[in-house]
Amino acid sequence: xxxxxxxxxxxxxxxxxxxxxxxxxxxxxxxxxxxxxxxxxxxxxxxxxxxxxxxxxxxxxxxxxxxxxxxxxxxxxxxxxxxxxxxxxxxxxxxxxxxxxxxxxxxxxxxxxxxxxxxxxxxxxxxxxxxxxxxxxxxxxxxxxxxxxxxxxxxxxxxxxxxxxxxxxxxxxxxxxxxxxxxxxxxxxxxxxxxxxxxxxxxxxxxxxxxxxxxxxxxxxxxxxxxxxxxxxxxxxxxxxxxxxxxxxxxxxxxxxxxxxxxxxxxxxxxxxxx
Length: 275
Known about the structure:
Blueprint: H1 10-23, E1 29-34, H2 36-40, E2 49-55, H3 60-65, H4 67-72, E3 77-83, E4 89-95, E5 100-107, H5 111-114, E6 120-124, H6 141-167, H7 171-193, H8 205-208, H9 211-217, H10 226-251, H11 257-264
Parallel strand pairs: 2-5
Antiparallel strand pairs: 1-2, 1-6, 3-4, 4-5
């Protein structure tokens, strides 16, 4: 299959048509497909493009060296950055006409590592995608344990700095660390509900967390007011103590009891004004 579904229109369609025109007869390209909401059929006018460009193994370095030129040939780019945080090259782009998204670039041998969930084939020169289903979730046990372990420890790093910022009457700094504490607790809640999906903290919480769970966190979203941030911090600490031991058991790792005992004993964390 190498057709663009009719439901993809406007600038996204024009972009994909241009991309296909450039890679269709490039023998270095093994496959091109879409993931995300476009593949799932849930895209709206705000959805971005989640693209996967798969190179023939022997041609990967050659295609990789031309990645920026390829994207720049498709229009006026106003933002182009990349990272390899997930173990493969990911290019994030925004064009002047509003088309935006990301494109994973990987060799065919790593195809199974770059995507999870529905996919929509745009080009399959080598038959790599024939009959292939991508498992919806890619987070393995070791990665999950690492994420939970870091959340359990680093919560207290931000919790301490939050208290210090409040004591120094630095509300902006305090708010930053409050958000970090919330994000770590949200990751714990996320993994409780979806243990094989990479957590995203605040991102996509509307879809990944149920209404009851979100309601637990809503009172922690507060303005730059010291007393409200104190109360939010204590509520997040309660959520941490509720979610943390369960997450540790799920991952078969030790809950940091001594760290928690020490941090809970800090006098700076005691309620103010008799609260």
